[in-house]
Automatic annotation (TrEMBL):
Residues 2-90 form the Myb/SANT-like DNA-binding domain. It holds the Pfam family Myb_DNA-bind_4. Signal peptide: none annotated. The lineage of its organism: Eukaryota, Metazoa, Chordata, Craniata, Vertebrata. This is ZSC29 protein. It comes from the Eukaryota.
Length: 104
């Protein structure tokens, strides 16, 4: 797929940081409908992404965040990511076991 721009990722994170969206994502595994909502909201920002692209990007960001967080926790600072602070604001409050439970 087309590479995500910084603005597109920012918009995705902004939508994802919506408490309502977070609760829905935490409460379900079959999340196609949620990502269809996310895609519709991105459309309002003029960003043309389908739900699959949104879900894939969400998963990748989450994975990248966990890697960065894990590296940070073990004292290594080499692994930093672009949107770490934004994601930490969303994901930092949820425990790791909760995160791994909703991962698969």
């Amino acid at each position: 797929g087309k590479h995500w721009t910084v603005n597109e990722v920012r918009a995705l994170i902004r939508i994802w940081s919506d408490k309502n969206i977070q609760q829905q994502l935490e409460g379900t595994v079959r999340n196609k409908r949620i990502f269809e909502q996310v895609a519709a909201r991105l459309q309002k920002f003029g960003i043309d992404r389908d739900w699959k692209q949104c879900r894939t990007k969400y998963k990748n960001l989450k994975h990248e965040y966990k890697s960065a967080k894990g590296a940070q926790d073990s004292g290594s600072t080499s692994r930093s990511m672009k949107f770490f602070n934004e994601l930490d604001a969303i994901l930092g409050h949820s425990t790791m076991e909760q995160a791994s439970k909703s991962d698969n």
